[in-house]
Amino acid sequence: MKIYYEDILVGEVLTNRSLTVGEALELVGFDEEKFIAENGFDDIDYNDFKLV
Q1: What is the mean pLDDT of residues 20-24?
Q2: In angstroms, rounded to a whole number, what is the distance separating the alpha carbons of residues 43 and 11?
Q3: Chain-centre distance of CA 28, in angstroms?
Q4: Are residues 46 and 21 in contact, defined by beta-carbon separation less than 8 angstroms?
């Protein structure tokens, strides 16, 4: 499963079950502040994440 924010690949998780976005981000060790700084965002909207 791939985790995207808009069109930015955030991470990948190998799983055999359904995950919420929050669970997937936790598994990849998502650092919100670092992601915002690296991508030049002021803030992020968790509704813009998608799992593919």
Answers
A1: 95
A2: 19
A3: 8
A4: yes
